[in-house]
Amino acid sequence: TSQKCNTFQVVYTIFLHSCNTPDKDIQSLSHLGLGSRVSLSTPQSNVEEDEIYTLGQTFLTSYAYNHFDVQLKSQLPTLQKCSETLAHMTSAVLLRLEHGVTTNNLRCLRLLWQCSTLNDSVCWSMPLPSFGTSVTSISEYPSGLSRCEWFNSWNFRYHLFYHGLKYFHQFRHTLGSPKEVDSTPVVKSHHFPAQAMDINQSEASGNIQVIANLLMHGGVGDPYQQHPGDVAAGDEWNIVNMTDHVILFHGDLGTSERV
Description:
Structural class: alpha/beta
Number of helices: 7
Shape: extended
Radius of gyration: 28 Å
Helix content: 25-40%
Distance between the termini: 54 Å
Low-confidence stretches: 230-236
Number of strands: 6
Oligomer: single chain
């Protein structure tokens, strides 16, 4: 400890931060020796930023984001009309794609655009490309039911035998287990949290800003576009061209309506 920073000053400063005391008041108390200039912010480390940048440039990730609200209460009384204290922000996380997904699997943007209903140049009288036989149309059961129909039948009997009348409990041993069809193995997921963004995603413009911000931190984009505002003209902007790849985004129910 010292006269400039001791236990009392640090604890008292943390207490002031917990009471939402304005920074200018904390600085004034620190000049009087009653507080310390303790920063409670925990910015994202360079190691985490490098991991997000490296993972984003492999395209083997998906971006998930959602909004959260922060109530910024002020304990300082004022005679002026109180301003809006509810801050609308956005949090995000990068989810690494597992199960053997490769970059070549995601290089299908042109094919998806040809099949998209938003593409006005597509002639919808032409049949869409086939992606293989649907598993729901294959019948492997003596009853003639498809896999989807058989599973619905099994699910109905399961709820009847376990949650129905007591009379049906005697048939539990005849239920068996459903047959697996292209089951997805359970693996450990890896996620990388991104920095919170002071962006309101309740509007279409906010969703666009969030997506552009996440792609910039992931190191992907269109290299022929102009540099973003936080990158100086003389600095090197190392990004990977994403124009041929599909990038997955996860959001709330309103994301598909606004993006």
